[in-house]
Protein backbone atom coordinates (compact mmCIF):
# COMPACT_ATOMS: atom_id res chain seq x y z
CA UNK A 1 0.00 0.00 0.00
CA UNK A 2 1.38 3.41 -0.97
CA UNK A 3 2.13 5.67 1.97
CA UNK A 4 0.41 9.08 1.89
CA UNK A 5 2.56 12.19 1.79
CA UNK A 6 3.11 14.07 5.07
CA UNK A 7 0.67 16.94 5.56
CA UNK A 8 2.14 20.41 5.08
CA UNK A 9 1.50 22.42 8.25
CA UNK A 10 1.90 26.14 8.86
CA UNK A 11 2.13 27.38 12.46
CA UNK A 12 0.55 30.79 13.20
CA UNK A 13 1.81 31.78 16.63
CA UNK A 14 5.05 30.11 17.68
CA UNK A 15 5.64 31.63 21.10
CA UNK A 16 3.98 30.69 24.39
CA UNK A 17 1.73 27.70 23.84
CA UNK A 18 2.63 27.80 20.16
CA UNK A 19 6.09 26.48 21.05
CA UNK A 20 4.33 23.31 22.25
CA UNK A 21 2.87 22.83 18.77
CA UNK A 22 6.30 23.31 17.25
CA UNK A 23 7.72 20.51 19.39
CA UNK A 24 4.76 18.32 18.45
CA UNK A 25 5.32 19.00 14.75
CA UNK A 26 8.96 17.96 15.08
CA UNK A 27 7.75 14.59 16.41
CA UNK A 28 5.08 14.26 13.72
CA UNK A 29 7.76 14.89 11.10
CA UNK A 30 9.85 12.09 12.58
CA UNK A 31 6.77 9.86 12.37
CA UNK A 32 6.29 10.79 8.70
CA UNK A 33 2.86 12.29 9.40
CA UNK A 34 3.48 16.02 8.89
CA UNK A 35 6.13 18.56 8.05
CA UNK A 36 6.41 22.20 9.04
CA UNK A 37 5.95 24.33 5.92
CA UNK A 38 6.31 27.74 7.57
CA UNK A 39 5.80 29.90 10.65
CA UNK A 40 3.88 33.15 11.08
CA UNK A 41 4.76 35.24 14.13
CA UNK A 42 5.72 38.91 14.52
CA UNK A 43 8.45 38.00 16.99
CA UNK A 44 11.67 36.29 15.83
CA UNK A 45 12.63 32.74 16.89
CA UNK A 46 13.82 32.25 20.46
CA UNK A 47 15.68 29.47 22.33
CA UNK A 48 12.27 27.78 22.72
CA UNK A 49 12.45 27.02 19.00
CA UNK A 50 15.59 24.88 19.02
CA UNK A 51 13.71 22.20 17.05
CA UNK A 52 12.88 24.55 14.18
CA UNK A 53 14.06 22.91 10.92
CA UNK A 54 16.76 24.99 9.17
CA UNK A 55 15.42 27.12 6.34
CA UNK A 56 11.81 27.13 7.56
CA UNK A 57 10.05 30.26 6.22
CA UNK A 58 9.24 32.69 9.09
CA UNK A 59 7.09 35.78 8.49
CA UNK A 60 4.70 38.10 10.31
CA UNK A 61 2.00 37.96 7.60
CA UNK A 62 -0.03 34.76 7.29
CA UNK A 63 -1.66 35.69 3.98
CA UNK A 64 1.75 36.39 2.48
CA UNK A 65 3.13 33.10 3.80
CA UNK A 66 0.19 31.09 2.46
CA UNK A 67 0.73 32.76 -0.89
CA UNK A 68 4.29 31.41 -0.98
CA UNK A 69 3.92 27.93 0.53
CA UNK A 70 1.32 25.21 0.11
CA UNK A 71 -0.42 24.40 3.39
CA UNK A 72 -2.81 21.56 4.13
CA UNK A 73 -3.31 22.62 7.76
CA UNK A 74 -2.77 25.88 9.63
CA UNK A 75 -2.33 25.73 13.40
CA UNK A 76 -3.56 28.96 15.02
CA UNK A 77 -1.95 29.40 18.43
CA UNK A 78 -1.84 33.19 18.37
CA UNK A 79 -3.31 35.67 20.91
CA UNK A 80 -7.06 35.29 21.40
CA UNK A 81 -7.99 38.48 19.55
CA UNK A 82 -6.22 37.15 16.43
CA UNK A 83 -7.96 33.75 16.36
CA UNK A 84 -10.80 34.74 14.05
CA UNK A 85 -8.91 36.64 11.37
CA UNK A 86 -6.03 34.14 11.19
CA UNK A 87 -8.42 31.17 11.01
CA UNK A 88 -10.41 32.94 8.30
CA UNK A 89 -7.25 33.63 6.31
CA UNK A 90 -6.28 29.96 6.55
CA UNK A 91 -9.71 28.70 5.49
CA UNK A 92 -9.85 31.05 2.52
CA UNK A 93 -6.42 29.79 1.45
CA UNK A 94 -7.84 26.25 1.28
CA UNK A 95 -6.37 24.88 4.51
CA UNK A 96 -7.99 23.07 7.39
CA UNK A 97 -7.45 24.65 10.80
CA UNK A 98 -6.26 23.54 14.23
CA UNK A 99 -7.52 26.45 16.35
CA UNK A 100 -6.53 27.02 19.95
CA UNK A 101 -9.21 27.75 22.53
CA UNK A 102 -11.21 29.86 22.92
CA UNK A 103 -12.03 29.61 19.22
CA UNK A 104 -13.12 33.24 18.91
CA UNK A 105 -13.53 36.13 21.37
CA UNK A 106 -17.10 36.85 20.22
CA UNK A 107 -20.16 34.78 19.39
CA UNK A 108 -20.59 36.66 16.11
CA UNK A 109 -17.07 35.64 15.15
CA UNK A 110 -17.84 32.03 16.01
CA UNK A 111 -20.93 32.05 13.80
CA UNK A 112 -19.04 33.67 10.93
CA UNK A 113 -16.19 31.15 11.17
CA UNK A 114 -18.66 28.25 11.34
CA UNK A 115 -20.48 29.48 8.25
CA UNK A 116 -17.24 30.05 6.34
CA UNK A 117 -15.78 26.62 7.07
CA UNK A 118 -19.03 24.93 6.05
CA UNK A 119 -19.28 26.97 2.85
CA UNK A 120 -15.68 26.24 1.87
CA UNK A 121 -15.85 22.58 2.87
CA UNK A 122 -12.94 22.91 5.29
CA UNK A 123 -12.71 21.57 8.85
CA UNK A 124 -11.72 23.31 12.04
CA UNK A 125 -10.67 21.51 15.20
CA UNK A 126 -10.57 23.45 18.50
CA UNK A 127 -7.79 22.81 20.99
CA UNK A 128 -9.77 21.55 23.95
CA UNK A 129 -7.26 18.83 24.81
CA UNK A 130 -9.50 17.51 27.59
CA UNK A 131 -11.81 16.11 24.89
CA UNK A 132 -9.04 13.86 23.62
CA UNK A 133 -9.75 10.98 25.97
CA UNK A 134 -12.43 8.30 26.09
CA UNK A 135 -12.88 9.25 29.74
CA UNK A 136 -15.45 11.86 28.68
CA UNK A 137 -17.66 9.34 26.87
CA UNK A 138 -17.10 6.84 29.68
CA UNK A 139 -18.59 9.34 32.14
CA UNK A 140 -21.52 9.99 29.82
CA UNK A 141 -22.17 6.25 29.50
CA UNK A 142 -22.08 5.75 33.27
CA UNK A 143 -24.59 8.54 33.76
CA UNK A 144 -26.86 7.29 30.96
CA UNK A 145 -26.80 3.78 32.45
CA UNK A 146 -27.97 5.10 35.84
CA UNK A 147 -24.75 4.29 37.69
CA UNK A 148 -25.28 7.22 40.06
CA UNK A 149 -29.07 7.42 39.97
CA UNK A 150 -30.96 10.54 38.96
CA UNK A 151 -28.59 13.31 37.89
CA UNK A 152 -28.84 16.57 39.79
CA UNK A 153 -26.32 18.48 37.72
CA UNK A 154 -22.76 18.83 36.48
CA UNK A 155 -20.15 20.90 38.31
CA UNK A 156 -16.66 22.04 37.39
CA UNK A 157 -14.04 23.15 39.89
CA UNK A 158 -10.69 24.80 39.24
CA UNK A 159 -8.39 26.31 41.87
CA UNK A 160 -5.11 27.48 40.37
CA UNK A 161 -2.31 29.83 41.36
CA UNK A 162 -1.10 32.55 38.98
CA UNK A 163 1.47 35.23 39.81
CA UNK A 164 2.08 38.70 38.46
CA UNK A 165 4.46 37.13 35.93
CA UNK A 166 1.50 35.36 34.32
CA UNK A 167 -0.40 38.60 33.85
CA UNK A 168 2.76 40.34 32.57
CA UNK A 169 3.47 37.77 29.86
CA UNK A 170 1.90 39.79 27.03
CA UNK A 171 0.00 42.97 26.23
CA UNK A 172 -3.29 41.06 25.96
CA UNK A 173 -3.02 39.04 29.18
CA UNK A 174 -5.91 39.71 31.54
CA UNK A 175 -7.58 42.13 29.14
CA UNK A 176 -11.22 42.34 28.15
CA UNK A 177 -10.27 44.42 25.13
CA UNK A 178 -7.08 45.53 23.43
CA UNK A 179 -7.03 48.45 20.98
CA UNK A 180 -10.79 48.22 20.69
CA UNK A 181 -10.79 44.49 19.89
CA UNK A 182 -12.37 41.91 22.23
CA UNK A 183 -9.88 39.65 24.03
CA UNK A 184 -11.82 38.16 27.00
CA UNK A 185 -8.74 36.66 28.68
CA UNK A 186 -10.35 35.68 31.98
CA UNK A 187 -10.36 32.53 34.10
CA UNK A 188 -13.58 31.19 32.56
CA UNK A 189 -12.65 31.70 28.93
CA UNK A 190 -8.93 30.89 28.82
CA UNK A 191 -6.79 29.31 31.59
CA UNK A 192 -9.59 27.15 33.04
CA UNK A 193 -11.79 27.08 29.93
CA UNK A 194 -11.35 23.29 29.73
CA UNK A 195 -13.29 22.87 32.98
CA UNK A 196 -16.40 24.59 31.65
CA UNK A 197 -16.14 23.13 28.13
CA UNK A 198 -15.73 19.59 29.46
CA UNK A 199 -18.67 20.01 31.84
CA UNK A 200 -20.87 21.16 28.95
CA UNK A 201 -19.78 18.21 26.83
CA UNK A 202 -20.45 15.71 29.60
CA UNK A 203 -23.88 17.24 30.19
CA UNK A 204 -24.57 16.79 26.48
CA UNK A 205 -25.22 20.45 25.73
CA UNK A 206 -22.10 21.75 24.01
CA UNK A 207 -23.52 22.98 20.70
CA UNK A 208 -24.88 26.37 19.67
CA UNK A 209 -28.47 26.91 20.83
CA UNK A 210 -28.47 24.20 23.51
CA UNK A 211 -28.38 26.64 26.45
CA UNK A 212 -31.43 28.54 27.67
CA UNK A 213 -29.74 30.79 30.26
CA UNK A 214 -26.28 31.84 31.42
CA UNK A 215 -25.74 33.40 34.86
CA UNK A 216 -22.36 35.02 35.54
CA UNK A 217 -20.66 36.04 38.78
CA UNK A 218 -17.34 37.64 37.83
CA UNK A 219 -14.68 38.85 40.26
CA UNK A 220 -11.05 39.98 40.19
CA UNK A 221 -8.42 40.16 42.89
CA UNK A 222 -5.60 41.00 40.47
CA UNK A 223 -5.03 44.41 38.89
CA UNK A 224 -6.41 43.28 35.54
CA UNK A 225 -9.50 44.02 33.44
CA UNK A 226 -10.81 40.47 33.18
CA UNK A 227 -12.10 38.04 35.79
CA UNK A 228 -9.75 35.80 37.79
CA UNK A 229 -12.34 34.31 40.18
CA UNK A 230 -15.76 33.48 38.77
CA UNK A 231 -18.81 31.27 38.95
CA UNK A 232 -21.01 30.41 35.98
CA UNK A 233 -24.34 28.63 36.03
CA UNK A 234 -26.08 27.58 32.83
CA UNK A 235 -29.42 25.96 32.24
CA UNK A 236 -29.69 23.72 29.20
CA UNK A 237 -32.54 23.23 26.77
CA UNK A 238 -33.02 19.78 28.26
CA UNK A 239 -33.44 21.19 31.76
CA UNK A 240 -29.94 20.35 32.96
CA UNK A 241 -27.72 22.48 35.17
CA UNK A 242 -23.99 23.15 34.85
CA UNK A 243 -22.06 25.17 37.44
CA UNK A 244 -18.40 26.11 36.94
CA UNK A 245 -16.52 27.62 39.88
CA UNK A 246 -13.03 28.77 38.94
CA UNK A 247 -10.20 30.83 40.41
CA UNK A 248 -6.59 31.78 39.74
CA UNK A 249 -6.25 33.15 43.27
CA UNK A 250 -6.13 29.94 45.31
CA UNK A 251 -4.04 29.40 48.40
CA UNK A 252 -2.54 26.35 46.70
CA UNK A 253 -2.92 24.84 43.25
CA UNK A 254 -5.26 21.87 42.91
CA UNK A 255 -6.05 19.58 40.02
CA UNK A 256 -9.26 20.75 38.29
CA UNK A 257 -12.14 18.35 37.78
CA UNK A 258 -15.70 17.89 36.55
CA UNK A 259 -18.20 16.18 38.85
CA UNK A 260 -21.61 14.71 38.02
CA UNK A 261 -23.76 14.43 41.13
CA UNK A 262 -26.58 11.91 41.29
CA UNK A 263 -29.09 10.59 43.80
CA UNK A 264 -26.97 7.48 44.52
CA UNK A 265 -23.42 8.73 44.07
CA UNK A 266 -21.15 10.81 41.89
CA UNK A 267 -18.65 10.58 39.04
CA UNK A 268 -15.53 12.74 39.02
CA UNK A 269 -13.43 13.29 35.90
CA UNK A 270 -9.93 14.63 36.52
CA UNK A 271 -9.77 15.93 32.98
CA UNK A 272 -6.04 16.71 32.81
CA UNK A 273 -5.10 13.10 33.55
CA UNK A 274 -8.08 11.16 32.19
CA UNK A 275 -8.87 9.59 35.58
CA UNK A 276 -12.47 8.78 36.42
CA UNK A 277 -13.65 8.08 39.99
CA UNK A 278 -17.10 6.56 40.43
CA UNK A 279 -18.39 6.71 44.01
CA UNK A 280 -21.50 4.90 45.15
CA UNK A 281 -22.83 2.89 48.10
CA UNK A 282 -20.23 0.15 47.49
CA UNK A 283 -17.24 2.52 47.48
CA UNK A 284 -15.12 4.12 44.76
CA UNK A 285 -13.99 2.59 41.47
CA UNK A 286 -11.22 4.26 39.45
CA UNK A 287 -10.18 4.02 35.81
CA UNK A 288 -7.69 6.08 33.81
CA UNK A 289 -7.91 6.63 30.07
CA UNK A 290 -5.16 7.64 27.61
CA UNK A 291 -5.25 10.76 25.45
CA UNK A 292 -5.29 11.25 21.68
CA UNK A 293 -3.40 14.27 20.33
CA UNK A 294 -5.88 16.64 18.67
CA UNK A 295 -3.55 17.75 15.88
CA UNK A 296 -2.76 14.16 15.01
CA UNK A 297 -6.50 13.39 15.09
CA UNK A 298 -7.10 16.23 12.60
CA UNK A 299 -4.38 14.88 10.31
CA UNK A 300 -5.87 11.38 10.45
CA UNK A 301 -9.32 12.79 9.69
CA UNK A 302 -7.90 14.52 6.63
CA UNK A 303 -6.40 11.24 5.42
CA UNK A 304 -9.58 9.28 6.20
CA UNK A 305 -12.85 11.20 6.78
CA UNK A 306 -14.21 8.13 8.57
CA UNK A 307 -11.93 9.08 11.47
CA UNK A 308 -14.11 11.25 13.70
CA UNK A 309 -12.91 14.71 14.64
CA UNK A 310 -12.62 14.86 18.43
CA UNK A 311 -13.20 18.59 18.92
CA UNK A 312 -14.88 20.09 15.84
CA UNK A 313 -15.77 23.78 15.95
CA UNK A 314 -19.48 23.00 16.33
CA UNK A 315 -18.83 21.31 19.68
CA UNK A 316 -17.58 24.65 21.08
CA UNK A 317 -20.83 26.48 20.35
CA UNK A 318 -22.30 26.42 23.86
CA UNK A 319 -18.93 27.33 25.36
CA UNK A 320 -18.77 30.38 23.09
CA UNK A 321 -22.28 31.37 24.18
CA UNK A 322 -20.97 31.46 27.75
CA UNK A 323 -17.93 33.42 26.57
CA UNK A 324 -20.28 35.96 25.01
CA UNK A 325 -22.17 36.29 28.31
CA UNK A 326 -18.88 36.90 30.11
CA UNK A 327 -17.76 39.40 27.45
CA UNK A 328 -20.96 41.44 27.63
CA UNK A 329 -21.38 41.27 31.42
CA UNK A 330 -20.48 44.29 33.58
CA UNK A 331 -16.78 44.49 34.55
CA UNK A 332 -15.73 42.02 37.27
CA UNK A 333 -16.32 43.02 40.86
CA UNK A 334 -13.10 43.92 42.69
CA UNK A 335 -12.22 41.77 45.73
CA UNK A 336 -10.42 43.86 48.34
CA UNK A 337 -9.00 43.46 51.86
CA UNK A 338 -9.70 41.78 54.20
CA UNK A 339 -10.87 39.14 51.72
CA UNK A 340 -7.78 39.60 49.55
CA UNK A 341 -4.31 38.84 50.87
CA UNK A 342 -1.15 39.42 48.82
CA UNK A 343 1.69 36.90 48.98
CA UNK A 344 5.17 37.10 47.44
CA UNK A 345 6.90 40.05 45.83
CA UNK A 346 7.87 41.27 42.38
CA UNK A 347 6.86 38.92 39.56
CA UNK A 348 6.07 36.25 42.19
CA UNK A 349 3.43 38.44 43.83
CA UNK A 350 -0.06 36.98 43.86
CA UNK A 351 -3.35 37.69 45.61
CA UNK A 352 -5.17 34.96 47.52
CA UNK A 353 -8.94 35.18 47.98
CA UNK A 354 -10.03 34.08 51.44
CA UNK A 355 -11.64 30.63 51.43
CA UNK A 356 -11.81 30.35 47.65
CA UNK A 357 -10.09 26.93 47.52
CA UNK A 358 -12.98 25.32 49.39
CA UNK A 359 -15.58 27.58 47.77
CA UNK A 360 -14.94 26.22 44.27
CA UNK A 361 -15.41 22.66 45.57
CA UNK A 362 -18.59 23.61 47.42
CA UNK A 363 -20.06 25.32 44.38
CA UNK A 364 -19.25 22.43 42.02
CA UNK A 365 -20.68 19.76 44.31
CA UNK A 366 -23.77 21.64 45.58
CA UNK A 367 -24.45 23.46 42.28
CA UNK A 368 -24.76 26.74 44.18
CA UNK A 369 -23.03 29.91 43.05
CA UNK A 370 -20.59 31.97 45.12
CA UNK A 371 -23.33 34.41 46.09
CA UNK A 372 -25.70 31.58 47.00
CA UNK A 373 -22.96 30.18 49.23
CA UNK A 374 -23.04 33.54 51.03
CA UNK A 375 -19.31 34.10 50.67
CA UNK A 376 -18.36 37.44 52.27
CA UNK A 377 -16.36 38.68 49.26
CA UNK A 378 -19.02 37.69 46.73
CA UNK A 379 -21.02 40.77 47.63
CA UNK A 380 -18.09 43.18 47.53
CA UNK A 381 -18.83 46.41 45.70
CA UNK A 382 -16.33 47.36 42.98
CA UNK A 383 -13.85 50.03 44.04
Mean pLDDT: 95
How does CATH name the architecture of the largest domain? 2-Layer Sandwich
Number of domains: 2
Shape: globular
- Please name the fourth-level CATH homologous superfamily of the largest domain: Dihydrodipicolinate Reductase, domain 2
Approximate strand percentage:
25-35%
Low-confidence stretches: none
Helix content: 25-40%
| Structural class by SSE content | alpha/beta
Query: Quaternary arrangement of the chains shown?
Result: single chain
Counting DSSP E segments of at least 2 residues, the number of strands comes to 19
CATH class of the largest domain, named: Alpha Beta
**How is the CATH topology of the largest domain named?**
Dihydrodipicolinate Reductase, domain 2
Strand order of the largest sheet: 16-15-14-13-7-12-11-10-17
> What can be said about the biggest beta sheet?
9 strands, mixed
**Individual helix count:** 10
Please give the radius of gyration in angstroms.
21 Å
What is the CA–CA distance across the termini? 68 Å
Order of helices and strands: EHEEHEHEHEHEHEEHEEEEEEEHHEEEH
List keywords for this structure.
383 residues, alpha/beta, Rossmann fold, Dihydrodipicolinate Reductase, domain 2, 2 domains, 9-stranded mixed sheet, 6-stranded parallel sheet, 26% strand, globular
Amino acid sequence: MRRSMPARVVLAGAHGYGATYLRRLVQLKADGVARLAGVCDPRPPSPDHDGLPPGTPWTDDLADLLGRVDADVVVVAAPIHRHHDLAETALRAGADVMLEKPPTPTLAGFDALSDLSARLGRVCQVGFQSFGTDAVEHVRSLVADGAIGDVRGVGAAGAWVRTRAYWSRSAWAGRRELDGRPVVDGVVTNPLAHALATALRIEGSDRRGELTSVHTELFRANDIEADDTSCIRVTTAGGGTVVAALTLCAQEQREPYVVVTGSRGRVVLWYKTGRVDVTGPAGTDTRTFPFTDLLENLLRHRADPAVRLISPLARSGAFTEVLEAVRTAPPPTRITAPHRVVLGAGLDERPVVAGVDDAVDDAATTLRTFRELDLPWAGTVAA
